[in-house]
Design brief:
The chain is an alpha/beta fold. The chain has helices at residues 4-13, 31-43, 51-54, 111-118, 122-138, 162-175, 191-203, 222-232, 259-268, 277-290, 298-308, and strands at residues 23-27, 100-108, 143-148, 179-184, 211-215. α10 (277-290) packs across α11 (298-308).
């Protein structure tokens, strides 16, 4: 398996062609990590050869070829859950088809998880983040912040203080991050506590457009909490195809809500995502096979069963 540097260099040097926008998000643990990313970007020039010439099936280091990207849907009915800008639309990437790069930084809503996950206190993690954000801004690299264990901590329990999450979120935004993803890393979140957290964030003066929500589906509550977020006005939600992911510091934690499940839910509510859920289900099945792991998307498996008869 290729290491992170190999993957980074391949993506920078051989950006895949796609009819749809692609943004590569790199998790940056410290300032050195961002410096290494910038150095690699400066050193590696995108390949000018056609993909079929620059990468051959016989190349043992070449990543497997996934199914084609899901098609953008051209027609959609009005959505009952709306935003003030476009009543039918969920946000997507930028309009350009040239791959873009952004970085992510992570902090936590509890001291115990911060120490376990990043080996530093919350205050120390924010201090480290400030230096990363400052450097990223000099290179016009968008920065996404994460506040993990916002709705439950494996060490301190489910009752994480909403005001602490709001305080950290506000600090990250003041430092200059472009968006903060508030994360239910353990999947402990429930609808009432999600609603309370969102009200606390709003009371702290944090705008919905500056937020994303990140729900793991460990306890089967991710879609319920997503609907709570939609009703509150949030329009950006993290997901993972096939339900990939987890958390090594939270025993039993599953991955993010499956993209296929999230899209199926949103379409059922009348929202426009621009995603062909059937093709997304094919991708979920493909990557699960490639990684030799179960496909955790219930909607994806059901869609494929119907399609394949």
């Amino acid at each position: 398996m290729a290491n992170s540097a190999d993957v980074l260099n391949h993506l920078l040097g051989h950006p895949p062609t796609s009819p749809h926008p692609i943004t590569y998000n790199y998790l940056v643990p410290n300032l050195k990590g961002l410096q290494n990313l910038i150095r690699a970007a400066d050193e590696v020039k995108p390949a000018t050869l056609e993909p079929s010439l620059s990468q051959t099936p016989d190349d043992p280091k070449a990543p497997p070829t996934p199914p084609s990207s899901p098609k953008v849907q051209e027609k959609a009915e009005p959505a009952p859950i709306t935003s003030t800008q476009d009543p039918n639309s969920m946000p997507s990437s930028s309009s350009t088809t040239t791959p873009t790069t952004e970085i992510s930084i992570i902090t936590a809503a509890t001291e115990a998880f911060s120490l376990a996950n990043t080996n530093c206190t919350i205050a120390e993690s924010l201090s480290r983040s400030a230096a990363i954000i400052a450097l990223a801004k000099t290179r016009a690299i968008p920065v996404r912040g994460y506040v993990s264990v916002a709705l439950g901590c494996p060490y301190e329990g489910p009752d994480v203080a909403p005001h602490k999450v709001a305080e950290i979120t506000a600090t990250l935004l003041e430092m200059g991050v472009d968006e903060v993803s508030v994360a239910d890393t353990t999947g402990m979140g429930t609808a009432p506590r999600t609603r309370e957290l969102l009200k606390t964030l709003e009371a702290a003066g944090i705008a919905n457009q500056d937020l994303a929500l990140h729900f793991h589906d460990t306890y089967g509550q991710a879609l319920v909490n997503t609907v709570v977020g939609l009703e509150h006005g949030i329009r950006t939600f993290d997901s993972s195809v096939g339900g990939l992911g987890g958390c090594p510091f939270s025993k039993g934690a599953t991955g993010n809500v499956a993209t296929e499940d999230l899209v199926y839910c949103l379409h059922g509510l009348g929202a426009t995502t621009g995603i062909d859920v059937e093709e997304m289900a094919e991708i979920g099945a493909w990557i699960s096979t490639e990684l030799d792991r179960p496909n955790d998307s219930r909607a994806g498996k059901a869609i494929l069963a119907r399609l394949r008869g």
